[in-house]
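assembly run, all chains below
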Amino acid sequence: MAGPLEQFEIKPLADLSVGGIDVSFTNSALWMVIAAVLVTCFMTMSMRRGALVPGRWQGAAEVMYEFVANMLKDNVGSAGRKYFPFIFTLFMFVMFGNLLGMIPHSFTFTSHIAVNFALALVIFIGVTVIGFMRHGTHYFRMFFPEGAPIATAIILIPIEIISYFSRPFSLAIRLFANMTVGHIMLKVIGGFVGLIGILGVLPFALLTGITVLEFGIAALQAYVFTILTCIYLHDAIHMH
Amino acid sequence: MPQFDIATFSEQIFWLFVIFTILYFLMSKIALPKVGEVLERRQKNIEDNLGKARALKDETDAAIAKYEAALAEARDAAQADIREASEKAAAEQAKKTEALVKKLSKKTSDAEKAIVDAKTDAMKGVAEAASEIAREATDKLIGVKVQAKTADKAVSAIVGE
Amino acid sequence: MQRMLPVTEQYNRLQLSPNVKCVFLHIMVDKYLFFRYLSDLLSALSGGVLQLDSPWGAKYVARAFPCDVCKAAKAGFTTMSDDKDRASLEELETKLSAVAHKREEKHSPNRATGKPSQGMAIGMRISAEMIAAVLVGLLIGWALDRVLDTTPWLIVLFVFLGAGAGGLNAYRVAKGYDSAVGLGRAMRERSKQGDED
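ok done. output:
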């Protein structure tokens, strides 16, 4: 029986190196490719006919589109329109990554802190750049609450700065923790089912329940990741 | 935990950027414009159809209102006509009745007059005849020729009472 | 909504008495309520992050739908078959206005978002916020210590500041001031609430 952490192991499929940096094509990259291909197929094949009255697949693609569009509109407003392709790609990529991870013996690239943190960092830097571009140095006011006594600045400003810089970490850690814990739990309980044979009925029921829950969490975490991005974008654009 | 194996970070991040960038361009250049276009087209279609339905509905409402107005007008006109006709008929009737009554009363009075005349004539005739008969009778019976004047006097004295 | 229209169409074409239609109506309302229940449940489970109302809820369970049919059925019931055309016109009117109303509602900006969060998801979020903030504090402290050669004083200080920031972030999440960076917004919100109280 493989350990519950084995499923997270990165296995190189083709060794590759650019400028002395290891960029081997791994199982993680493979599943990213699968996710990207599936997203692309889903969004293009279903819309191929572009029917006025949508079929099942087209309806699904449209629901995804409108879902993300509404999320962006509700949280950022019309100024966020420009960033819609990015937000949409982010949502679909993370969600497909999470959901593909539910396939037995697959690999969940979103359970890796490096991937999540890289995504979160791109978002964080992008949002900060947008903030400074729109508001100039005025954007620094983010770090000191309006109307607070000036004497408290010495303590509040470091706290606000830490709070601001903790955004990419909290984004990455949340997704990583949810995916990792869920998969470990599934693996451990799945192991019980095999180990105790006929008595495995009880863990099996539990396993079924947790699997359903994990599917929900896979979609939910993609949603949370995306909506927090929208909220950060709102802050950068409007500064309240 | 394999997640904290720093040696694998570079390859993961590299492929993440490559694949995510490709996906981003596929989405923003190909997939999303198509969806947006379809949604917009549908939106427009629905709006058009709604507008059309609304216009047709309004048209129908207007037609109904017009029809109802015309109906009411026609009904009013018909009622007026009927009233007028019946009034006219009643007036004619009254006139005719009056004329008839007049005619009848005239006839009655004429007839009465004629009767009275006839009676007078008849009375006159009777007196003349009576005096004639009386004169002839006296002449035949007693051979006395009575003067017509005397006979008339005697007759009228009898008849006149 | 686009999907519902053919159904309403079919429904209206049913050659049934208004009474039978009303029975159908109640079944539909029950389904609708079940859907509401489901969406509320999901919303609670996700800590208010997930709201099925948009667009999954409103789109496929057209709110106005049952009422329209009810009105139409009522109209058909009271005017009887004599004024069938009139009744169908009235029905069209209610449907048209309902659709227009719904579209307006859909296009009006700024629907209220973000109920106060609750449940399991919020626990996960809070823990992530705390860990992240302490981590950032540690990182900044460590970096400053290395640059200023003050090891280990700044790292200690910044761990405490990080814990403070983590607490602040957790407070914001719990209070639903997600979109607020800066205590200022939180304080404003609170004073606003205080004014209302």
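Chain A touches chain C through 47 residues (CB under 8 Å).

The mean pLDDT of chain A is 87.

not gonna interpret more than that til we talk
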